[in-house]
From TrEMBL:
Membrane topology: Multi-pass membrane protein
GO molecular function: all-trans-retinol dehydrogenase (NADP+) activity; estradiol 17-beta-dehydrogenase [NAD(P)+] activity
Family: Belongs to the short-chain dehydrogenases/reductases (SDR) family. 17-beta-HSD 3 subfamily.
Gene: Hsd17b11_0
Entry GO terms, CC: endoplasmic reticulum; lipid droplet; membrane
Localisation: Endoplasmic reticulum; Lipid droplet; Membrane
Descriptive protein name: Estradiol 17-beta-dehydrogenase 11
Any matching Pfam family: adh_short
Alphabetical list of PANTHER family matching this protein: ESTRADIOL 17-BETA-DEHYDROGENASE 11 (PTHR24322:SF489), PKSB (PTHR24322)
Catalysed reactions listed for this entry: 17beta-estradiol + NADP(+) = estrone + NADPH + H(+); all-trans-retinol + NADP(+) = all-trans-retinal + NADPH + H(+); 17beta-estradiol + NAD(+) = estrone + NADH + H(+)
Length: 232
């Protein structure tokens, strides 16, 4: 394997590059995508990054469809977004269950309209060594962290393809690029999410669907209440 010091240098280099890139973008802002009136679906919208993302789209006057397994936090997010003047629809959806995803997606298409921006943000994490992690925890990480991305994309991509218009956002993790012990299953699922994003991007390009954009977010550490005492 790679010497730990080399790994650290690579990581710091990548981090530095990201900061420089962010600084350049801050000083030379690109024209922001106009998202007013677009129908935006955010999974995992009850807390953390999902809630912050929903709030930002609400400020930009998008219409919102918010999914989460946790009804109380979901309602709070919806209230906040409505306070910002956005039209909001909420669905209690367990993103570890394919049937729930597909049936909620059908309701959205039938009752609300065409989702043009899909933010696959729902995620779960268990931090433990591989042998202490339980089978069902490993399955759930793959169900939510990668399979849910695939089911939601399959549900909403056909309309985006027909219109050659849309945007698919994959919220992965820095753990989709750099591994860390005591998170073997989590890192594996996040590597899969990054791979999904890259392959989907290539496929859309091969199909000439230049109106469908893709973005991959890889947050480093996020205080979402998932990890009680993150040691890092």
């Amino acid at each position: 394997g790679m010497h730990p010091a080399v790994g650290l240098l690579l990581f710091l280099g990548t981090l530095l590059y990201a900061y420089v890139e962010a600084l350049v973008k801050l000083l030379l802002p690109a024209r922001r995508k106009a998202v007013r009136g677009e129908l935006v679906l955010v999974t995992g919208a009850a807390r953390g990054l999902g809630r912050a993302t929903a709030r930002e789209f609400a400020r930009l006057q998008s219409r919102l469809v918010l999914w989460d397994v946790e009804a109380h936090g979901l309602k709070e997010t919806a209230t906040e977004c409505e306070g910002l003047g956005a039209a909001v629809h909420t669905f209690v959806v367990d993103c570890s269950k394919r049937e729930e995803i597909y049936s909620a997606a059908e309701k959205v298409k039938k009752d609300i309209g065409d989702v043009s921006i899909l933010v696959n943000n729902a995620g779960v994490i268990t931090a433990a060594d591989l042998l202490s992690t339980q089978d069902h925890q490993i399955e759930k990480m793959f169900e939510v962290n990668i399979l849910a991305h695939i089911w939601t994309t399959r549900a909403f991509l056909p309309t985006m393809m027909n219109n050659n218009h849309g945007h698919i956002v994959t919220v992965a993790s820095a753990a989709g690029h750099f591994v860390t012990p005591f998170m073997v299953a989590y890192c594996s699922s996040k590597f899969a999410a990054v791979g999904f994003h890259k392959a989907l991007t290539e496929e859309l390009s091969s199909l000439g669907k230049d109106g469908i954009k893709t973005t991959c977010l890889c947050p480093v550490f996020m205080n979402t209440g998932f990890v009680k005492n993150p040691s890092t």
